[in-house]
Amino acid sequence: MSTPTLIDGKSGGILLICDHASNAVPQGIDLSIDPALLDKHIAIDIGAEPLTRTLAAQLGAPAILATVSRLVIDLHRQPDHPSLIPAISDGHVIPGNADADRAARIVQFHAPYHRALAQLVRRHQPVLLASIHSFTPELEHGGAGRRPWEAGILYNRDTRAAHLAVELLRAAGIPTGDNEPYSGRILNATLNRHGEANGIASLAIEVRNDEIAHAAGVARWGEILGSTLETIRNRLASKASPAT
Fold first, then answer.
1. 174-192: per-residue pLDDT in tens?
2. Which SUPFAM superfamilies does the record cross-reference, listed alphabetically (predicted)?
3. Is residue 133 part of a domain?
């Protein structure tokens, strides 16, 4: 059974999530790929783990970070999703996943992660869940071209936090995608399960990975997103407070 990394924090209203923090392939699993692929975006959200840690320290917020590569199992997918255990990712074939024991990987990795996250939600009762991801400037396959955004805000039905985040980031002069580079209405599994299902405001923050592939970029985005998340939390909390 795999144990996610948990960061202690005060119950300050924000809970941070990093589903794609790791490129680790546990012992006993052979993906049969070139090890160099583990340093690509198909295996890990580059920069997301240090950015999540920076935000947790800055905000004093609790956080959960995955400890297994999404090439082993994608924790940001429903258990029945076709790409839960990807056979191909951005044009790269993952031979070791062709005959993977789906049920065993769910039990070993997916279920413990989401169980730990559910426990954090119950313990801290946050007003905001913020999922931290990164995206590649351009996909290797598909010919979609270079993505023009520095950041993207993803969401499904609950727009309370997301629309405000887009507004704040654009006002700061940051090219920000609204449900781009892909739509949270299609891929929003973690926040659907732990946010919307519990009535908790949530958003996924995507930062272009060349922006946070180095310490200076992580520090810069920590400042940008830290203040953004604090503003969102404060506004959500004020709306939730009874009138006096």
1. 999 999 998 999 999 999 9
2. Zn-dependent exopeptidases (SSF53187)
3. yes
The residue written with tokens 């929003």 in the block is 188
Bridge partners (DSSP) of residue 205 are: 132, 153
**Cβ partners under 8 Å of residue 195, min gap 6:** 129, 158, 201, 202
Claim: this prediction has a pTM higher than 0.90: yes
Answer yes or no: is 244 within a domain.
no
